[in-house]
């Protein structure tokens, strides 16, 4: 798929109707990003991740970034609702907040999550980024707030293996490893989270997720499969962590490794 | 859509069969209110909002009000089950409880929620009103009852942004704003709630929802999209609030605003 | 629908294949009991009511009783899995445990719930009886066991209105009424519950449900609609009751009635 | 179905493309194992059992074993993703870890669960084995860990009847019986669990399930129906057990049997 040149010379305004590159979101392929974002978001709605138009997802296909608009009901989204922009064109822009859209849906506003998704694509080479308002994620940040903590830490749970070892590293975390997810404080305007998200990426170079206090979580991966697997695994761990807290069980434990005795 | 004249001169009885305006509920358009109410209610049933025929939803399209009947299984409703009435005709009626139905389903009784939905339409110009029996809403009213409180208050949660600033105001609440939802006491007969709902609307002119103690919640919005978004966001916040209570976390907090340092 | 004469003269064995009255379970009508039981059970499976082949439902259409077999996966049931028997023929049988089946599925055994469903049909004239293993029901019986109690009592909750006033009475319970559901002790063999269920029906003539300790609940109604509405309402109340217990809120309360001031 | 001879002489590498026995996973029959594993896993995903590519299921049809690959999204699996191997061929192999695949999907790696599924098939003659990461299972192992216990024990709950009496025994457990499920410690590598699972099978010859600490559960049965029924019943009991713990209710109780008085 060769991206066409930006149609509106760098301005943030939607392109004129007859030059809106609607072909970028038109495909019969269910795996095309413009079809996949709606079907993923419908699934996420049933999981309680994108309730009340909150949360969302973005997919990058080489230089093209597909992104849902602001304020849309996530389980009802259509491919025609999708924004498309060129990643390279954003980097060239002097003004970070003036974004070039190759294709804009006529009736919507761009999502405030856009610069956060872009951070995952530019700083981590991610192929997909998911943002949820999962109440398990929010509860974890509230529990950590009472402990004055800016890190979620859990170890010795099998599902931890659902996470990669880190940026440009091969392999996944092991059962005994400690998964560490940084927490950043929420800002009044979602776009203002960007610098803090980027800071967290710098401080935790191997993390694939950042929790946002009293808000939710951003999770990314090299591709849609990995981002979704990591997001599901993390939500599972957040739910488990809240239930462990209710039962008085600690998140970090000392577990003696069990070694196989048999020599095959 | 031009509403036909009322067919039965102000009486509450259903119109005769050959003059029942069935065309008002017959449409191939899934967005037509007579199709949308059943599909919304089926979705709400899976969320536990309209269990056991409780709860419901009403949509206003200009002067026409579409409303589900009493005692119907909400996930099985059909467009032919829908009542239609003229909002203007109700206002002209001397007797508030004698309602003019343009179209009545043959085998049902009108919903006791009708005057409460009408209050949202007449006093707030709402385009849609949703009533749920969500157990999260009921639990919140029970927790507040123990505190002798008639207000649900929560702040510093991102999902609060899902609410509009108030009647005839533009924009939405911010992250640090306190969302305030009044609680009214339940009455033996649902219709009798109307005056207390209207009082709450007068006292809290900017609210889009009223909790009913030991019963549920009424939520409205300028249109279906906004009513549903606000209802989902509120149910999310009620669930979060109950879980925060179980974890000993307060609903109102002091959170220092996080200010972006970067000057773009 | 005219029931054919019993084909096997009172024996409990299935009828021979060429005389098995398969037409009794063959219909294109989704409302036919042989189609409705599978679709209801599939829905109940998603609610966690009939997990692991537990629970079930039976429908009576005049003299004909339709009933699911033992040990079938409830979300996968087909109309061809359904037993049919004549209610009148059971009453005439001298041996209560020798039941006359008009139609039997070839590969199954009759459900142990059969005599309990029949009790609802014969003693209460019910048109439908639902049996769930809902863990909310089980938890309520466990909480009551610790209080040495054989009655679930709750009042001042709107959803109580989902219940009828009682056998051969018109109208429904009111908001301030106390819903009382008797609890019977579980027996090693489900059929042995029958006499205790019947005793509870005699002692609580107006109840539409009986809880079974550490087991689940039986709920019935004059027809499918009423049985399902009452079963959903009860499960809602059981869930609420467990959550109230976890929050330290009492199930029985003194609530001052709120009286409307306006004279319309 | 006659299995073809192994196509690659005992090596673990996938067969060459033109000899990959794809016909083994191609069938129009929804009950064919290659179709049933994907539909079961899709259902299990909605239950939270196979979140984030965790967990899985395997079916044995005579000598042929069908098994899902590693790291696949369980609700999106297709029949073409399925591995097939000959049970007899594994037993003949000198090296336990070098497995003979009759058919391999081109782009995947074999599941680390494979030897654990094979243990259920060879040591217990199971026809199906299910592995879940259900958080109820994990929470039960965490609660037991605090009690230094390696056994989950529960009695006097009706759903216990969902379990068979044991290997090569007829009939099911009774209401008053104590269900005992052994817990093994988790290992860093899932394959290394095999010897401990086999040990638990030897020590608890009648169990149909083994819990894995901080990981999940393996459940099997003589066929798909029994494995699924036992897995659902166990997950129900794990959920109930966690909720009982939260309410301070014990898992083991003394319950006086209730004996029927009526002599039929």
UniProtKB/TrEMBL annotation, chains A, B, C, D:
Gene3D superfamilies the UniProt entry points to: Class II aldolase/adducin N-terminal domain
InterPro entries linked: Aldolase_II/adducin_N (IPR001303), Aldolase_II/adducin_N_sf (IPR036409), MethylthioRu-1-P_deHdtase_MtnB (IPR017714), Salvage_MtnB_euk (IPR027514)
Cofactor note text: Binds 1 zinc ion per subunit.
UniProt-listed Enzyme Commission number(s): 4.2.1.109
Cofactor(s) demanded: Zn(2+)
Residues noted as binding substrate in the record, renumbered to the chain: 113
Binding site for Zn(2+): 131, 133, 215
GO biological process per UniProt: L-methionine salvage from methylthioadenosine
UniProt keyword terms in alphabetical order: Amino-acid biosynthesis, Cytoplasm, Lyase, Metal-binding, Methionine biosynthesis, Zinc
Pathway, per record: Amino-acid biosynthesis; L-methionine biosynthesis via salvage pathway; L-methionine from S-methyl-5-thio-alpha-D-ribose 1-phosphate: step 2/6
Domain Class II aldolase/adducin N-terminal: 35-242
Region (Disordered): 1-31
GO cellular component: cytoplasm
Places the protein is found: Cytoplasm
Keyword Magnesium (UniProt): no
Active-site feature positions: 158 (proton donor/acceptor)
Chief localisation class: cytoplasm
Catalytic activity: 5-(methylsulfanyl)-D-ribulose 1-phosphate = 5-methylsulfanyl-2,3-dioxopentyl phosphate + H2O
GO molecular function: methylthioribulose 1-phosphate dehydratase activity; zinc ion binding
Entry keyword annotation includes S-adenosyl-L-methionine: no
Family according to the record: Belongs to the aldolase class II family. MtnB subfamily.
Summary of the function given for this chain in its UniProt record: Catalyzes the dehydration of methylthioribulose-1-phosphate (MTRu-1-P) into 2,3-diketo-5-methylthiopentyl-1-phosphate (DK-MTP-1-P).
Descriptive protein name: Methylthioribulose-1-phosphate dehydratase
Organism the protein comes from: Podospora australis
């Amino acid at each position: 798929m060769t991206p066409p040149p930006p149609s509106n010379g760098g301005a943030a305004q939607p392109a004129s109707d007859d030059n809106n590159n609607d072909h970028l979101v038109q495909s019969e392929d269910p795996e095309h990003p413009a079809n996949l974002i709606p079907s993923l978001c419908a699934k996420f709605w049933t999981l309680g991740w994108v309730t009340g138009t909150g949360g969302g997802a973005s997919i990058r296909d080489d230089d093209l970034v597909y992104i849902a608009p602001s304020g849309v009901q996530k389980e009802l989204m259509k491919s025609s609702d999708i924004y498309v922009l060129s990643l390279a064109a954003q980097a060239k822009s002097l003004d970070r907040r003036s974004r070039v859209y190759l294709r804009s849906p006529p009736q919507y506003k761009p999502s405030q999550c856009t610069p956060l998704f872009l951070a995952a694509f530019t700083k981590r080479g991610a192929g997909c980024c998911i943002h949820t308002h999962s109440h398990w994620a929010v509860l974890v940040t509230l529990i950590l707030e009472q402990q004055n903590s800016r890190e979620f830490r859990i170890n010795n749970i099998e599902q931890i293996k659902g996470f990669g070892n880190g940026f440009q590293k091969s392999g996944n975390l092991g059962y005994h490893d400690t998964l560490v997810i940084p927490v950043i404080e929420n800002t009044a305007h979602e776009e203002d989270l960007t610098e803090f998200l980027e800071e967290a990426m710098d401080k935790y170079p191997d993390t694939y997720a950042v929790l946002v206090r009293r808000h939710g979580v951003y999770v990314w991966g090299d591709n849609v499969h990995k981002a979704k697997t990591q997001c599901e695994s993390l939500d599972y761990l957040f739910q488990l962590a809240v239930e462990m807290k209710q039962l008085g069980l600690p998140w970090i434990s000392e577990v003696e490794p069990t070694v196989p005795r048999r020599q095959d």
